[in-house]
Amino acid sequence: MKGLNLHRTDLVLLGMLIAFTILVAILASWVMPPEKKGSFFQQPSSYFNRAYGTKALFLTLQELGQPIQRLERSIDSHSLQDIDGLLILEPWSALSEDEQGNLRDWVMEGNCLVYIPSLEETFMEEEDDDDGADRSEEQSESEFQTVRIEKATSENHPLFNNVANLEFSKGALKSLADETPPCENWLLEEAKCETLISDATLTLGVHAQLGEGSVYWIADSHPLSNKGLLKDSHAVFAANLVHELTQDSPDFVLAFDEYHHGFVDRDTSPVAILKLTFGDWWGYGIANALLVGALALWVASRRFGRPRELRGEQRRHQSEFIYAAGNLLRRGKGLFPVRETLASYYRERLCSHLHLPPNIQEGVLIREIHDHAMMDVGEAFHILGGGTSAGKVNETQVHAACQILEKALKRLNHGNRKSA
Predict the structure, then answer these.
(1) Is the predicted pLDDT of residue 291 greater than 70, yes or no?
(2) pTM of structure
(3) Domain 40-124+135-265 is in which class?
(4) N- or C-end of the chain: fewer Cβ atoms within 10 A?
Protein backbone atom coordinates (compact mmCIF):
# COMPACT_ATOMS: atom_id res chain seq x y z
CA MET A 1 0.00 0.00 0.00
CA LYS A 2 3.07 2.23 0.20
CA GLY A 3 3.13 2.87 -3.52
CA LEU A 4 -0.48 4.09 -3.46
CA ASN A 5 0.47 6.96 -1.14
CA LEU A 6 -2.64 6.49 1.01
CA HIS A 7 -3.29 8.39 4.20
CA ARG A 8 -4.63 6.95 7.41
CA THR A 9 -8.25 7.78 6.61
CA ASP A 10 -7.91 6.17 3.19
CA LEU A 11 -6.48 2.99 4.70
CA VAL A 12 -9.35 2.77 7.18
CA LEU A 13 -11.90 3.17 4.40
CA LEU A 14 -10.14 0.60 2.23
CA GLY A 15 -10.08 -1.86 5.14
CA MET A 16 -13.81 -1.35 5.65
CA LEU A 17 -14.45 -1.97 1.95
CA ILE A 18 -12.42 -5.20 2.01
CA ALA A 19 -14.25 -6.42 5.12
CA PHE A 20 -17.59 -5.56 3.51
CA THR A 21 -16.61 -7.46 0.35
CA ILE A 22 -15.69 -10.55 2.38
CA LEU A 23 -19.00 -10.36 4.25
CA VAL A 24 -20.94 -10.12 0.98
CA ALA A 25 -19.05 -13.14 -0.38
CA ILE A 26 -19.90 -15.19 2.72
CA LEU A 27 -23.57 -14.23 2.55
CA ALA A 28 -23.67 -14.97 -1.19
CA SER A 29 -22.18 -18.42 -0.61
CA TRP A 30 -25.03 -19.19 1.79
CA VAL A 31 -27.71 -17.87 -0.54
CA MET A 32 -26.50 -19.43 -3.81
CA PRO A 33 -27.74 -22.92 -4.73
CA PRO A 34 -25.52 -25.93 -3.92
CA GLU A 35 -24.27 -26.48 -7.47
CA LYS A 36 -22.48 -23.12 -7.26
CA LYS A 37 -20.90 -23.64 -3.85
CA GLY A 38 -18.21 -26.20 -4.59
CA SER A 39 -16.61 -28.30 -1.88
CA PHE A 40 -17.27 -25.89 1.01
CA PHE A 41 -20.73 -27.39 1.43
CA GLN A 42 -22.18 -30.85 1.09
CA GLN A 43 -23.07 -31.43 -2.53
CA PRO A 44 -24.57 -34.86 -3.15
CA SER A 45 -23.83 -35.44 -6.81
CA SER A 46 -22.88 -38.59 -8.67
CA TYR A 47 -20.92 -37.01 -11.49
CA PHE A 48 -17.50 -36.00 -10.17
CA ASN A 49 -14.07 -37.43 -10.76
CA ARG A 50 -14.16 -39.24 -7.41
CA ALA A 51 -14.93 -42.75 -6.33
CA TYR A 52 -18.69 -42.18 -6.45
CA GLY A 53 -18.70 -40.14 -9.70
CA THR A 54 -19.37 -41.45 -13.19
CA LYS A 55 -16.84 -39.46 -15.14
CA ALA A 56 -15.19 -42.69 -16.28
CA LEU A 57 -18.43 -43.83 -17.92
CA PHE A 58 -18.86 -40.53 -19.71
CA LEU A 59 -15.27 -40.50 -21.01
CA THR A 60 -15.48 -44.12 -22.11
CA LEU A 61 -18.60 -43.49 -24.16
CA GLN A 62 -17.03 -40.37 -25.62
CA GLU A 63 -13.85 -42.20 -26.62
CA LEU A 64 -15.91 -44.97 -28.22
CA GLY A 65 -17.51 -42.40 -30.50
CA GLN A 66 -20.94 -42.48 -28.89
CA PRO A 67 -22.78 -39.16 -29.47
CA ILE A 68 -23.03 -37.80 -25.95
CA GLN A 69 -23.85 -34.41 -24.48
CA ARG A 70 -24.94 -32.64 -21.33
CA LEU A 71 -28.54 -31.74 -20.70
CA GLU A 72 -28.99 -28.27 -19.24
CA ARG A 73 -31.77 -27.60 -16.80
CA SER A 74 -34.58 -26.82 -16.89
CA ILE A 75 -35.86 -29.92 -18.65
CA ASP A 76 -38.39 -28.96 -21.29
CA SER A 77 -39.44 -29.99 -24.79
CA HIS A 78 -36.79 -27.74 -26.32
CA SER A 79 -33.88 -29.23 -24.36
CA LEU A 80 -35.11 -32.79 -25.00
CA GLN A 81 -35.83 -32.53 -28.72
CA ASP A 82 -32.31 -33.41 -29.95
CA ILE A 83 -31.59 -36.39 -27.67
CA ASP A 84 -32.73 -40.01 -27.75
CA GLY A 85 -31.59 -41.25 -24.34
CA LEU A 86 -31.13 -39.54 -20.98
CA LEU A 87 -29.38 -40.56 -17.76
CA ILE A 88 -30.54 -38.86 -14.57
CA LEU A 89 -28.47 -40.39 -11.79
CA GLU A 90 -29.14 -39.43 -8.18
CA PRO A 91 -30.08 -35.79 -8.74
CA TRP A 92 -29.65 -33.61 -5.67
CA SER A 93 -31.96 -31.06 -7.32
CA ALA A 94 -35.49 -32.42 -7.44
CA LEU A 95 -37.42 -32.30 -10.68
CA SER A 96 -40.30 -29.86 -10.78
CA GLU A 97 -43.79 -30.99 -11.74
CA ASP A 98 -43.40 -29.41 -15.18
CA GLU A 99 -40.09 -31.24 -15.71
CA GLN A 100 -41.66 -34.52 -14.62
CA GLY A 101 -44.49 -34.03 -17.11
CA ASN A 102 -42.05 -33.13 -19.90
CA LEU A 103 -39.98 -36.25 -19.17
CA ARG A 104 -43.03 -38.53 -19.27
CA ASP A 105 -44.20 -37.03 -22.56
CA TRP A 106 -40.71 -37.34 -24.01
CA VAL A 107 -40.41 -41.02 -23.02
CA MET A 108 -43.87 -41.81 -24.39
CA GLU A 109 -42.74 -40.49 -27.78
CA GLY A 110 -40.30 -43.41 -28.04
CA ASN A 111 -37.19 -42.30 -26.12
CA CYS A 112 -35.22 -44.00 -23.33
CA LEU A 113 -34.56 -42.86 -19.77
CA VAL A 114 -32.24 -44.26 -17.08
CA TYR A 115 -33.29 -42.93 -13.70
CA ILE A 116 -31.56 -43.49 -10.37
CA PRO A 117 -33.37 -41.71 -7.52
CA SER A 118 -31.67 -39.40 -5.06
CA LEU A 119 -31.64 -41.01 -1.62
CA GLU A 120 -30.28 -38.82 1.19
CA GLU A 121 -28.41 -41.52 3.08
CA THR A 122 -26.70 -42.60 -0.12
CA PHE A 123 -24.67 -39.42 0.00
CA MET A 124 -24.35 -38.47 3.65
CA GLU A 125 -24.36 -41.15 6.28
CA GLU A 126 -22.70 -38.83 8.82
CA GLU A 127 -24.14 -35.34 9.12
CA ASP A 128 -21.17 -34.04 11.15
CA ASP A 129 -18.45 -35.05 8.71
CA ASP A 130 -16.06 -32.10 8.64
CA ASP A 131 -14.33 -33.23 5.46
CA GLY A 132 -17.15 -32.16 3.62
CA ALA A 133 -18.87 -32.97 0.99
CA ASP A 134 -20.26 -36.08 -0.40
CA ARG A 135 -19.13 -39.65 0.06
CA SER A 136 -15.85 -40.86 1.45
CA GLU A 137 -13.12 -41.59 -1.08
CA GLU A 138 -12.27 -44.80 0.71
CA GLN A 139 -15.40 -46.88 1.04
CA SER A 140 -14.90 -50.26 2.62
CA GLU A 141 -16.38 -53.42 1.22
CA SER A 142 -18.69 -53.70 4.24
CA GLU A 143 -20.63 -50.64 3.05
CA PHE A 144 -21.97 -52.53 0.03
CA GLN A 145 -24.37 -55.42 -0.30
CA THR A 146 -23.90 -57.91 -3.11
CA VAL A 147 -26.97 -59.06 -5.04
CA ARG A 148 -26.50 -62.24 -7.06
CA ILE A 149 -28.18 -62.08 -10.43
CA GLU A 150 -29.11 -65.78 -10.51
CA LYS A 151 -31.43 -65.09 -7.57
CA ALA A 152 -32.95 -62.03 -9.20
CA THR A 153 -36.34 -62.07 -10.87
CA SER A 154 -35.19 -61.67 -14.48
CA GLU A 155 -31.77 -63.26 -14.64
CA ASN A 156 -32.24 -63.93 -18.37
CA HIS A 157 -32.76 -60.29 -19.30
CA PRO A 158 -30.18 -59.01 -21.88
CA LEU A 159 -29.12 -56.42 -19.33
CA PHE A 160 -27.46 -59.17 -17.26
CA ASN A 161 -25.60 -61.09 -19.96
CA ASN A 162 -22.32 -62.27 -18.39
CA VAL A 163 -23.13 -60.36 -15.18
CA ALA A 164 -22.74 -62.54 -12.09
CA ASN A 165 -23.66 -60.03 -9.40
CA LEU A 166 -24.09 -56.35 -8.62
CA GLU A 167 -23.24 -54.34 -5.53
CA PHE A 168 -25.50 -51.71 -3.98
CA SER A 169 -24.58 -49.39 -1.13
CA LYS A 170 -26.23 -50.18 2.18
CA GLY A 171 -27.11 -46.51 2.59
CA ALA A 172 -29.18 -46.62 -0.58
CA LEU A 173 -30.91 -49.83 0.45
CA LYS A 174 -31.66 -48.42 3.90
CA SER A 175 -33.26 -45.30 2.44
CA LEU A 176 -35.08 -47.29 -0.22
CA ALA A 177 -36.98 -49.22 2.45
CA ASP A 178 -38.78 -46.01 3.44
CA GLU A 179 -39.46 -44.82 -0.11
CA THR A 180 -42.48 -45.36 -2.33
CA PRO A 181 -42.13 -48.54 -4.44
CA PRO A 182 -40.69 -47.63 -7.85
CA CYS A 183 -43.75 -48.73 -9.80
CA GLU A 184 -45.91 -46.34 -7.76
CA ASN A 185 -43.81 -43.20 -8.10
CA TRP A 186 -44.45 -40.22 -10.41
CA LEU A 187 -42.48 -41.75 -13.28
CA LEU A 188 -43.75 -45.31 -13.46
CA GLU A 189 -47.27 -45.16 -12.05
CA GLU A 190 -48.78 -45.30 -15.57
CA ALA A 191 -46.18 -47.70 -17.02
CA LYS A 192 -46.02 -51.46 -17.47
CA CYS A 193 -43.29 -52.47 -15.04
CA GLU A 194 -41.00 -55.49 -15.09
CA THR A 195 -38.83 -56.15 -12.05
CA LEU A 196 -35.23 -56.79 -13.07
CA ILE A 197 -33.35 -56.95 -9.76
CA SER A 198 -34.64 -57.58 -6.27
CA ASP A 199 -33.64 -59.05 -2.95
CA ALA A 200 -35.87 -60.53 -0.31
CA THR A 201 -37.80 -57.33 0.42
CA LEU A 202 -36.74 -54.56 -1.97
CA THR A 203 -37.03 -53.91 -5.69
CA LEU A 204 -33.60 -52.74 -6.91
CA GLY A 205 -34.13 -52.50 -10.66
CA VAL A 206 -37.16 -52.03 -12.90
CA HIS A 207 -37.69 -51.91 -16.64
CA ALA A 208 -40.91 -50.13 -17.60
CA GLN A 209 -42.65 -49.58 -20.90
CA LEU A 210 -44.12 -46.07 -21.00
CA GLY A 211 -45.95 -45.37 -24.23
CA GLU A 212 -43.51 -46.10 -27.06
CA GLY A 213 -40.45 -45.52 -24.89
CA SER A 214 -38.79 -47.33 -22.01
CA VAL A 215 -37.48 -46.47 -18.54
CA TYR A 216 -34.74 -48.21 -16.55
CA TRP A 217 -35.10 -47.49 -12.85
CA ILE A 218 -32.10 -48.55 -10.70
CA ALA A 219 -31.79 -48.17 -6.94
CA ASP A 220 -28.14 -47.09 -6.74
CA SER A 221 -25.51 -45.59 -9.06
CA HIS A 222 -22.59 -47.53 -7.53
CA PRO A 223 -22.47 -50.11 -10.38
CA LEU A 224 -21.97 -47.20 -12.82
CA SER A 225 -19.57 -45.18 -10.64
CA ASN A 226 -15.82 -44.73 -11.13
CA LYS A 227 -15.07 -47.14 -8.31
CA GLY A 228 -17.85 -49.55 -9.24
CA LEU A 229 -16.60 -49.94 -12.81
CA LEU A 230 -13.38 -51.46 -11.45
CA LYS A 231 -15.39 -54.66 -10.97
CA ASP A 232 -15.78 -56.74 -14.11
CA SER A 233 -19.46 -57.47 -13.55
CA HIS A 234 -20.25 -53.76 -13.19
CA ALA A 235 -18.34 -52.86 -16.36
CA VAL A 236 -20.24 -55.53 -18.30
CA PHE A 237 -23.52 -54.30 -16.79
CA ALA A 238 -22.75 -50.72 -17.94
CA ALA A 239 -21.94 -51.96 -21.45
CA ASN A 240 -25.17 -53.97 -21.58
CA LEU A 241 -27.15 -50.95 -20.39
CA VAL A 242 -25.71 -48.70 -23.09
CA HIS A 243 -26.34 -51.42 -25.69
CA GLU A 244 -29.98 -51.74 -24.60
CA LEU A 245 -30.41 -47.98 -24.84
CA THR A 246 -28.69 -47.35 -28.15
CA GLN A 247 -29.06 -50.71 -29.91
CA ASP A 248 -25.59 -49.92 -31.32
CA SER A 249 -27.06 -47.12 -33.43
CA PRO A 250 -24.37 -44.55 -34.37
CA ASP A 251 -27.00 -41.80 -34.50
CA PHE A 252 -28.38 -42.41 -31.01
CA VAL A 253 -27.70 -39.28 -28.92
CA LEU A 254 -27.19 -39.95 -25.22
CA ALA A 255 -27.29 -37.13 -22.66
CA PHE A 256 -26.31 -36.73 -19.01
CA ASP A 257 -28.19 -34.41 -16.70
CA GLU A 258 -25.89 -31.43 -15.98
CA TYR A 259 -26.74 -31.37 -12.28
CA HIS A 260 -24.65 -34.48 -11.72
CA HIS A 261 -21.95 -34.35 -14.34
CA GLY A 262 -18.78 -32.53 -13.26
CA PHE A 263 -16.74 -33.08 -16.40
CA VAL A 264 -16.71 -30.32 -19.00
CA ASP A 265 -15.65 -30.61 -22.63
CA ARG A 266 -12.62 -28.54 -23.56
CA ASP A 267 -13.74 -25.24 -25.02
CA THR A 268 -11.32 -22.35 -25.56
CA SER A 269 -13.88 -19.75 -26.58
CA PRO A 270 -14.02 -16.49 -24.56
CA VAL A 271 -17.45 -17.41 -23.22
CA ALA A 272 -16.16 -20.80 -22.01
CA ILE A 273 -13.15 -19.14 -20.37
CA LEU A 274 -15.43 -16.69 -18.55
CA LYS A 275 -17.66 -19.56 -17.42
CA LEU A 276 -14.61 -21.46 -16.20
CA THR A 277 -13.29 -18.38 -14.38
CA PHE A 278 -16.48 -17.32 -12.66
CA GLY A 279 -18.83 -20.29 -13.02
CA ASP A 280 -17.51 -22.49 -10.21
CA TRP A 281 -16.96 -21.97 -6.49
CA TRP A 282 -13.63 -20.20 -7.06
CA GLY A 283 -15.42 -17.56 -9.14
CA TYR A 284 -16.35 -15.71 -5.95
CA GLY A 285 -12.70 -15.43 -4.94
CA ILE A 286 -11.67 -14.16 -8.38
CA ALA A 287 -14.53 -11.67 -8.51
CA ASN A 288 -13.72 -10.42 -5.01
CA ALA A 289 -10.03 -10.03 -5.86
CA LEU A 290 -10.92 -8.00 -8.96
CA LEU A 291 -13.37 -5.91 -6.95
CA VAL A 292 -10.83 -5.18 -4.21
CA GLY A 293 -8.21 -4.28 -6.82
CA ALA A 294 -10.63 -1.91 -8.54
CA LEU A 295 -11.53 -0.34 -5.20
CA ALA A 296 -7.84 0.12 -4.36
CA LEU A 297 -7.23 1.88 -7.67
CA TRP A 298 -10.30 4.03 -7.13
CA VAL A 299 -9.23 4.95 -3.62
CA ALA A 300 -5.75 5.81 -4.89
CA SER A 301 -7.22 8.20 -7.46
CA ARG A 302 -9.48 10.04 -5.01
CA ARG A 303 -8.85 11.98 -1.83
CA PHE A 304 -11.01 11.08 1.16
CA GLY A 305 -11.36 12.63 4.58
CA ARG A 306 -10.84 16.23 5.68
CA PRO A 307 -9.21 18.46 3.05
CA ARG A 308 -5.88 20.03 3.82
CA GLU A 309 -5.72 23.63 4.97
CA LEU A 310 -4.99 26.08 2.17
CA ARG A 311 -1.58 27.60 2.65
CA GLY A 312 -1.77 31.32 2.04
CA GLU A 313 1.18 33.10 0.47
CA GLN A 314 1.64 36.87 0.63
CA ARG A 315 1.35 38.52 -2.76
CA ARG A 316 3.31 41.55 -3.86
CA HIS A 317 1.48 44.86 -3.53
CA GLN A 318 0.97 47.31 -6.36
CA SER A 319 3.19 49.82 -4.60
CA GLU A 320 6.10 47.41 -4.92
CA PHE A 321 5.71 47.32 -8.68
CA ILE A 322 5.42 51.12 -8.80
CA TYR A 323 8.51 51.49 -6.66
CA ALA A 324 10.43 49.06 -8.85
CA ALA A 325 9.31 50.86 -12.01
CA GLY A 326 10.29 54.23 -10.52
CA ASN A 327 13.73 52.96 -9.65
CA LEU A 328 14.13 51.64 -13.17
CA LEU A 329 13.17 54.99 -14.71
CA ARG A 330 15.37 56.92 -12.30
CA ARG A 331 18.41 54.83 -13.05
CA GLY A 332 17.76 55.30 -16.73
CA LYS A 333 17.26 59.05 -16.20
CA GLY A 334 13.74 58.80 -17.57
CA LEU A 335 12.10 61.48 -15.42
CA PHE A 336 10.25 63.05 -18.33
CA PRO A 337 8.05 59.96 -19.10
CA VAL A 338 7.41 59.69 -15.37
CA ARG A 339 6.15 63.30 -15.29
CA GLU A 340 3.90 62.67 -18.29
CA THR A 341 2.49 59.47 -16.79
CA LEU A 342 1.80 61.11 -13.43
CA ALA A 343 0.23 64.18 -15.04
CA SER A 344 -2.11 62.01 -17.13
CA TYR A 345 -2.98 59.85 -14.11
CA TYR A 346 -3.88 62.76 -11.81
CA ARG A 347 -5.68 64.64 -14.59
CA GLU A 348 -8.04 61.65 -15.22
CA ARG A 349 -8.75 61.17 -11.53
CA LEU A 350 -9.40 64.87 -10.85
CA CYS A 351 -11.70 65.17 -13.89
CA SER A 352 -13.59 62.09 -12.72
CA HIS A 353 -14.16 63.59 -9.27
CA LEU A 354 -15.27 66.93 -10.76
CA HIS A 355 -17.42 65.25 -13.43
CA LEU A 356 -15.49 66.98 -16.19
CA PRO A 357 -14.38 65.57 -19.56
CA PRO A 358 -10.75 64.36 -19.62
CA ASN A 359 -9.84 66.67 -22.53
CA ILE A 360 -10.79 69.89 -20.71
CA GLN A 361 -8.32 72.74 -20.82
CA GLU A 362 -5.78 72.74 -18.02
CA GLY A 363 -6.64 76.30 -16.89
CA VAL A 364 -10.35 75.44 -16.51
CA LEU A 365 -9.43 72.32 -14.53
CA ILE A 366 -7.15 74.33 -12.20
CA ARG A 367 -9.95 76.86 -11.51
CA GLU A 368 -12.49 74.11 -10.81
CA ILE A 369 -10.08 72.47 -8.35
CA HIS A 370 -9.50 75.82 -6.65
CA ASP A 371 -13.25 76.43 -6.36
CA HIS A 372 -14.04 72.99 -4.95
CA ALA A 373 -10.89 72.02 -3.02
CA MET A 374 -9.66 75.51 -2.07
CA MET A 375 -6.19 74.63 -3.31
CA ASP A 376 -3.87 76.07 -5.95
CA VAL A 377 -2.56 73.21 -8.05
CA GLY A 378 -1.27 75.27 -10.97
CA GLU A 379 2.39 74.88 -10.01
CA ALA A 380 2.00 71.12 -9.57
CA PHE A 381 0.52 70.73 -13.06
CA HIS A 382 3.21 73.03 -14.37
CA ILE A 383 5.94 70.74 -12.99
CA LEU A 384 4.30 67.50 -14.14
CA GLY A 385 2.85 68.79 -17.37
CA GLY A 386 6.16 69.67 -18.97
CA GLY A 387 6.01 73.43 -18.56
CA THR A 388 9.39 73.21 -16.86
CA SER A 389 12.27 71.71 -18.81
CA ALA A 390 13.49 68.30 -17.75
CA GLY A 391 16.87 69.60 -16.72
CA LYS A 392 15.40 72.01 -14.16
CA VAL A 393 13.06 69.50 -12.48
CA ASN A 394 14.33 67.03 -9.94
CA GLU A 395 12.75 64.08 -8.17
CA THR A 396 11.96 66.13 -5.07
CA GLN A 397 9.89 68.59 -7.06
CA VAL A 398 8.01 65.75 -8.81
CA HIS A 399 7.31 64.11 -5.45
CA ALA A 400 6.09 67.44 -3.97
CA ALA A 401 3.79 68.02 -6.97
CA CYS A 402 2.31 64.52 -6.57
CA GLN A 403 1.66 65.18 -2.88
CA ILE A 404 -0.22 68.41 -3.72
CA LEU A 405 -2.39 66.68 -6.32
CA GLU A 406 -3.02 63.71 -3.98
CA LYS A 407 -4.14 66.15 -1.28
CA ALA A 408 -6.50 67.82 -3.74
CA LEU A 409 -7.97 64.43 -4.63
CA LYS A 410 -8.59 63.67 -0.97
CA ARG A 411 -10.36 67.00 -0.47
CA LEU A 412 -12.52 66.50 -3.55
CA ASN A 413 -13.34 62.96 -2.46
CA HIS A 414 -14.24 64.16 1.03
CA GLY A 415 -16.38 66.93 -0.39
CA ASN A 416 -18.24 64.52 -2.70
CA ARG A 417 -19.00 62.19 0.19
CA LYS A 418 -20.16 65.11 2.30
CA SER A 419 -22.50 66.38 -0.40
CA ALA A 420 -23.83 62.87 -0.95
Answers:
(1) yes
(2) 0.49
(3) alpha beta
(4) C
